[in-house]
Amino acid sequence: GTGVGLHLTAELAAVHKGKTEYTPSELGGACFSVSIPLSDENYTLEEIIETHALPDVSKTTDLISTDDSPEAVSSGKRYQDYKLLIIEDDDEVCEFVSQQLNESFSIVTAKDGTEGLKKAINEQLNLIVCDVMMPGIDGFEVTRRLKADFLTSHIPVILLTAHSSEEHQLEGIQAGADAYITKPFSIKYLMARIVKLIEQREKLQQKFAQEPGAAPIHLINFTDRDKTFLDKMHALIEQNMESVDFSVDTFAQIVGMGRTNFYKKVKGITGHSPNEYVRIIRLKKAAELLATTNLNISEVSYKIGFDDPFYFSKCFKAQFGKTPSAFQKGG
Fold this sequence. Notes:
Elements: H1 5-15, E1 19-24, E2 30-35, E3 64-65, H2 70-73, E4 79-87, H3 91-101, E5 105-110, H4 113-122, E6 127-131, H5 139-148, E7 157-161, H6 166-175, E8 179-182, E9 185-186, H7 187-210, H8 224-239, H9 248-254, H10 259-270, H11 274-292, H12 297-303, H13 309-320, H14 324-328
Parallel strand pairs: 3-9, 4-5, 4-6, 6-7, 7-8
Antiparallel strand pairs: 1-2
Helix pairs in contact: 4-5, 12-13
């Protein structure tokens, strides 16, 4: 189902001055009835906000409002290069959310936790939105497995659930979720959380790439294994800094990963392909050498694995906005 459950039903009934009652069923099991008064005499003037006709609440998609266009949240920016995975067992909800988010993102869907875990490994994902209450593997367990698997541990996860209690939110956080949204929710709010998580990572990745010097990249909500992996990458680049022939294939072999998985992992953590990231680290090292040594431009170029000083100067300016000579002079 949608995961709304009896608890949310009782809360909604209470908000509308109604009540939820239980009686044993003659056929076995339980019978629950909900009664809501129709007259506005049951409400104070302060409680009556709008007087227009109520919407049809017969569909599960009414758990989701479309109060604003999703694109309005991102100030017109589109994220079609970003791929999201929606894991939701309710076909109607899954289709509705996917259609709304598809205006801004590339969307992949999975009907349960098992399929979702497989797609998380096979696809190059930027974020996962997962329902909590699903048959088989629930959203909490999906999140725990994603964060425990080195190939998927870096992917942000947003959990959707009808449980609003502090206990359930704590369980989601402990499982490793990056955000926890309770139903009913608006597409605008979901979009805002997605955009914020993506932009937070982008800003840190860009800050690291565009600032000269050897300061380490700061990561948001990455696991210890991700940080260890990145530290190992930096150590290997440092050891092979002067080697023009040091390739991504060699790099992947040293860390014991296949080329495809290695590419996806580096891209997921840093926002750059392995080749781009190696070049950034080398250029940052060049900035450090230019600022702390008396080496000339050509000598610095060779020290960081560039065999063409002219090409090095071109890359350096593209990365930091000034030529190596201007940087060395402090201008």
